[in-house]
Amino acid sequence: MKIAAAVRDADRQACFAIRRAVFIEEQQIPEAEEWDGHDATCIHFLAVADGAPAGTARLIATGDIAKIGRVAVIKAHRGTGLGRRIMQTVLDHARHAGFGSAQLDAQVTVLGFYESLGFCAHGPEFDDGSGILHRRMTLDLAAVADSRNRAVSGAG
Fold first, then answer.
1. What is the per-residue pLDDT across 19-34, written as a single tens digit (0 to 9) for each?
2. Strand, coil or helix: what is 93?
3. 105 Cβ neighbours under 8 A, 6+ residues apart
């Protein structure tokens, strides 16, 4: 399994194909809601498993905040830990790039997944235009890095 920033056009197109399959076809999100101007300027991440595209996410730089979105795993790879690995890759990238925090708008059905990564939900549920309820979530990247460093060094 490989997860990396999608720098080649073919890799970005694979990210878009995954989003089409998951969000537009499976979840019936209107196509006009899925594609936006951020796709041309953000960093896309592509997960490849068994030689085929299997998952994606994107990172939008908003000042000191890494806005993470469009996290999707194709059906055949759900429940394998791939989503967690994608998120860890994106969060590691954000930390190394110097972002202070990460933010995302999570579908309410997967709040627990993001909470298990350290994200905290804030504010009320809202419809982001897709017809699916979401909540804003944030993560202090410095605090997570510090706790990981203490765990690695054995400090408590």
1. 999 999 999 999 989 9
2. helix
3. 69, 128, 134, 135, 136, 137
Beta strand pairing call for 120-127 and 133-140? antiparallel
Can you list the positions of beta strands (E) in 74-119?
101-107
Q: What is the pLDDT of residues 140-150, one digit of tens each?
A: 998 765 545 54
Give the per-residue pLDDT at 149. Answer: 52
- pTM of the model as a whole: 0.90
Q: Would you say 45 and 89 are in contact if contact means Cβ atoms under 8 Å apart?
A: yes
Query: Domains of the chain by range and CATH?
Result: 2-153 (3.40.630.30)
Residue 17 CA to residue 72 CA, distance in Å, equals 10
Q: How far is CA 29 from the centre of its chain?
A: 17
**114 pLDDT above the threshold of 80:** yes
What residue type is assigned to position 132 of the chain?
Answer: I
